[in-house]
Specification:
It is a single chain. The chain has six helices and ten strands; from the N terminus they run αββββαααβββαβββα. It is α+β, with helices and mostly antiparallel strands. The chain has one domain: Catalase core domain (Catalase HpII,  Chain A, domain 1). Strands 1, 2, 3, 4, 5, 6, 7, 8, 9 and 10 form a ten-stranded antiparallel β-sheet that branches. It starts with 15 loop residues before the first helix and ends with a helix. The model has no long low-confidence stretch (mean pLDDT about 85). InterPro entries: Catalase_sf (IPR020835). One of its GO terms (molecular function) is heme binding.
Length: about 325
């Protein structure tokens, strides 16, 4: 294989128009989070994406013994402690038996002293339908406004959705949508999970895949997702392979084109994630809703790469700051 491409900050840079749209978007994120308790009818402020928590658990990352030499400096311990959050991508929390199959598997990695090394919010769909930063910001702003202002913002939101359709019709997108629909009723822990965008690994650029081992996709068919997940994790150990792809060439492994899969970059196993049975965290503990899985809080050499990823940095900051401020006030009232 050729040498991996090196990270360059130019991958992340926004132009002036994009920066202006981002400021407008941040305002709607704060407005959404401030009103999120009434939008979802809960007694706390929610996230403005992946609002619904199914469960949180403690886990362990076990490093692959024969990891390639070039990767060894980043995996210099036999194991690392994890905090894991399982979620649904919807902005609004609904107590329905069937949620759309858009799941999150967010992983927080700690060092031996309990300090944060990295956050990786993984999802069960490997691609993102929008490459244009401006289009994404306009759509996300319109969606936030719709949830806040309801019907008066319906037409602007639909207009932005229509603009996204062309970029959502790549061969890779269509193939993965069909695959997801075929698995829509499968158990949440039977899905593969992906980083979608790229991340740094030192000077290298990677994508991540989490692939579960020996999980029956028919588990908990007649239960709500939250119940089936908790019942499984109380009774079974869960293990998944962690695989990465390296970026060698922007044509085959594009950083800022998220609606196509990387090709000509083999998956490399770097370790396993394990959740031993009965490792669930208390779902009633308010501190779990204060957890942040912002990948930009990671050590600098593990942070996300790319323009769409850069937007997530600002969005996470606004969402977390607003959510924590409100929830700490609510927690103070209830204590």
């Amino acid at each position: 294989m050729p040498n991996p491409l090196k990270y360059n900050k130019k991958f992340d840079e926004l132009n002036e128009e994009e920066k202006k749209l981002l400021e407008l978007n941040k305002k709607t994120i704060a407005d959404f989070v401030e009103q999120s308790s009434s939008i979802s009818d809960v007694n706390y402020a929610t996230r403005n994406a992946h609002a619904k928590t199914y469960a949180a658990a403690k886990g362990t990352f076990w490093t692959e013994p024969d990891i390639p030499e070039s990767l060894q400096p980043f995996f210099d311990k036999e194991k690392f402690d994890l905090t894991i959050r399982f979620s649904n991508a919807q902005l609004k929390i609904k107590n329905s038996k069937k949620d759309i199959p858009a799941y999150g598997f967010a992983v927080q990695i700690k060092d031996e002293n309990g300090g944060l090394l990295a956050n990786y919010p993984l999802v069960n769909f490997p691609l993102f339908p929008i490459n244009s930063v401006s289009t994404f910001l306009k759509l996300f702003t319109a969606i936030n406004k719709f949830y806040i202002k309801k019907w008066s913002s319906l037409f602007p939101m639909l207009l932005q959705i229509i603009k996204v359709i062309p970029s959502a019709l790549t061969g890779d997108m269509i193939r993965n949508i069909i695959k997801l629909m075929g698995k829509r009723n499968d158990f949440i822990l039977s899905f593969d999970y992906y980083s979608v965008g790229a991340y740094r690994l030192g000077d290298q650029i990677i994508k991540i895949k989490l692939s579960p081992k020996n999980v029956d996709k028919h588990t908990g068919k007649k239960q709500q997702i939250k119940d089936s997940l908790k019942n499984y994790l109380q009774a079974h150990d869960f293990t998944a392979d962690i695989l990465i792809q390296l970026c060698y060439d922007l044509h085959d492994q594009p950083v800022n084109k998220l609606n196509v899969e990387w090709k000509n970059s083999p998956f490399i196993k770097i370790g396993e994630v394990k959740i031993t049975k009965d490792s669930l965290l208390d779902s009633r503990d308010c501190s779990n809703e204060l957890l942040s899985f912002n990948p930009f809080e990671s050590k600098i050499f593990f942070q996300p790469v790319g323009k769409i990823q850069k937007l997530r940095d600002e969005a996470y900051k606004v969402s977390v700051q607003t959510r924590r401020k409100i929830n700490k006030l609510l927690h103070g009232k209830n204590s």
